[in-house]
């Protein structure tokens, strides 16, 4: 076993079961570990702290287990079946798509698996996870049995690109019935969506907005809705199904807009218009009071701490435009999926936006990520999606 030895006193975070070991905590390495190897982590006084995937970078080890579970041949099956049992226990109704593995939240740091009605889309975010894909895929097969049609690896955009890995996306398993379908149809809260794991963003669909979309459906009745950063129309379909008078959806990706139109048609909905445009320009150029509900769900403005200040300014500018334009008595659903922006800072950015727009705003609801995107209590960094429902007087 290759070993990583820590400097004096640097075992604290691992003793608190935080799964990341930063490179600055290491005093020496034994056995010349390669990226992706499983290493043991040893404190200065010789105590074994856990086992994890070694990586070159600021996070040097992602801990898989604080005991010897990571060495067991049943490790992958046990973790993935635990994740599956958890998804069965959260009572998803009329829904056949969910996140099966949410990295650290499921004790598998660096791994994402999304389930789309028989197709598992896998994303490795570390070399260790990438090199374990065969074991992961065998475990998924064992856990799902007949229900599994295919496993698609989509790690090319997420695994470290400079590690000399052969990164090309593709199917790593298909059963006989599965004809390399490029896309599938899933049901979420009774609404249908076409998901293209090959062509779409991330693994194909933003599963993390499921519960927030259901809330949009409740608020939408009779309203003229503007859905900014609409992607394939998740919020638009729910708003129309909830009886919105009209929905205008805006996204800068032509592919996303084309898919959104198919999704609206698939659910036999009308009163929808889509615009392939910049969302900020669109809201700034729209007449005041035209919309009495606006959804603002941009991509992450800050991907790392260094971008935090500019990101907060970006949220402020965007939301100030939405708050100025919404009709009196209007509702705004606003989100941030930047992990480095915590919910307090986000609320402050929205507070500044309301002040800039010069309108009275009440917070009706505070939103976050759903139960299939769990946060490991020892790893608060797993919390990333936050949102507010605002009432603008
Ligand atoms: N609300 C969506 C997810 C949004 S993801 C859902 O529920 O599925 C963010 C989206 O913003 C992506 O579809 C991306 O294409 C789009 N986007 C990024 N920058 C944009 C911009 N400047 N104007 C409009 N859309 C943008």
- How would you write the strand order of the largest sheet? 16-15-14-17-18-20-19
How many strand units?
20
Quote the CATH topology of the largest domain: Rossmann fold
What spatial form do the alpha-carbon principal axes imply? globular
Largest sheet: 7 strands, mixed
The total tally of domains equals: 3
Q: Please tell me the CATH architecture of the largest domain by its name.
A: 3-Layer(aba) Sandwich
Please give the share of residues in helix: 25-40%
Number of helices: 10
Kindly provide the name of the CATH class of the largest domain: Alpha Beta
How would you classify the helix and strand content by structural class?
alpha/beta
Mean pLDDT level = 97
**Helix and strand sequence:** EHEEEEEHEEEHHEEEEHEHEHEHEHEHEE
Bound compounds, each kind once, are:
S-adenosyl-L-homocysteine
Distance between the termini: 64 Å
Strand content: 25-35%
Please sum up the structure shown:
With 393 residues, this protein is of the alpha/beta class. Helices cover 27% and strands 28% of the residues. Bound molecules: S-adenosyl-L-homocysteine (SAH).
Task: Summarize the structure in words.
Helix content is 27%, strand content 28%. With 393 residues, it is of the alpha/beta class. The protein has three domains: 70 residues, Archaeosine Trna-guanine Transglycosylase, Chain: A, domain 4 (Roll), CATH 2.30.130; 111 residues, Transcription Regulator spoIIAA; 187 residues, Rossmann fold. A seven-stranded mixed beta sheet has the order 16-15-14-17-18-20-19, with helices on both faces. It has a six-stranded mixed beta sheet with strand order 2-6-5-4-1-3. A five-stranded mixed beta sheet has the order 7-8-9-10-11. The site of S-adenosyl-L-homocysteine has 19 residues, from α6.
């Amino acid at each position: 076993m290759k070993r990583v030895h820590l400097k004096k006193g640097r075992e604290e975070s691992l003793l608190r079961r935080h799964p990341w070991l930063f490179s600055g905590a290491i005093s020496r390495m034994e056995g010349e570990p390669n990226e992706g190897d499983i290493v043991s982590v040893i404190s200065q006084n010789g105590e074994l702290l856990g086992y994890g995937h070694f990586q070159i970078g600021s996070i040097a080890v992602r801990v898989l287990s604080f005991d010897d579970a990571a060495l067991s041949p049943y490790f992958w099956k046990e973790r993935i079946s635990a994740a599956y049992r958890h998804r069965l226990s959260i009572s998803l109704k009329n829904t056949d798509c969910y996140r099966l593995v949410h990295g650290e939240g499921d004790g598998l740091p660096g791994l994402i698996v999304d389930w789309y009605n028989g197709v598992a889309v896998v994303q490795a975010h570390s070399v260790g996870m990438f090199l374990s894909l065969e074991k992961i895929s065998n475990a998924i097969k064992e856990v799902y049995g007949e229900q599994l049609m295919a496993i698609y690896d989509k790690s090319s955009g997420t695994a470290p690109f400079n590690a000399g890995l052969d990164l090309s996306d593709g199917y790593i398993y298909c059963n006989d019935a599965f004809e390399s379908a490029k896309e599938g149809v899933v049901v979420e809260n009774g609404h249908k969506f076409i998901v293209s794991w090959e062509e779409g963003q991330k693994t194909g669909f933003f599963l993390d907005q499921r519960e927030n979309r259901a809330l949009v459906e409740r608020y939408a009745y009779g309203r003229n809705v503007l859905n900014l950063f609409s992607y394939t129309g998740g919020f638009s379909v729910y708003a129309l199904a909830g009886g919105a008078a009209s929905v205008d959806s805006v996204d800068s990706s032509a592919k996303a807009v084309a898919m959104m139109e198919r999704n609206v048609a698939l659910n036999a909905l009308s009163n929808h218009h889509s615009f392939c445009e910049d969302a900020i320009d669109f809201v700034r150029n729209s007449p005041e009071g035209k919309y009495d509900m606006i959804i603002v769900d941009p991509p992450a403005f800050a991907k790392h701490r260094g971008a935090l200040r500019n990101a907060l300014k970006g949220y402020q500018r965007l939301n100030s435009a939405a708050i100025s334009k919404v009709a009196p008595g209007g509702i705004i659903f606003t989100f941030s999926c930047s992990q480095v922006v915590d919910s307090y800072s986000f609320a402050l950015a929205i507070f500044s936006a309301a002040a800039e727009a010069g309108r009275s705003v009440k917070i009706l609801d505070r939103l976050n990520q759903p139960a299939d995107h769990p946060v490991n209590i020892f790893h608060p960094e797993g919390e990333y999606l936050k949102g507010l429902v605002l009432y603008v007087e």
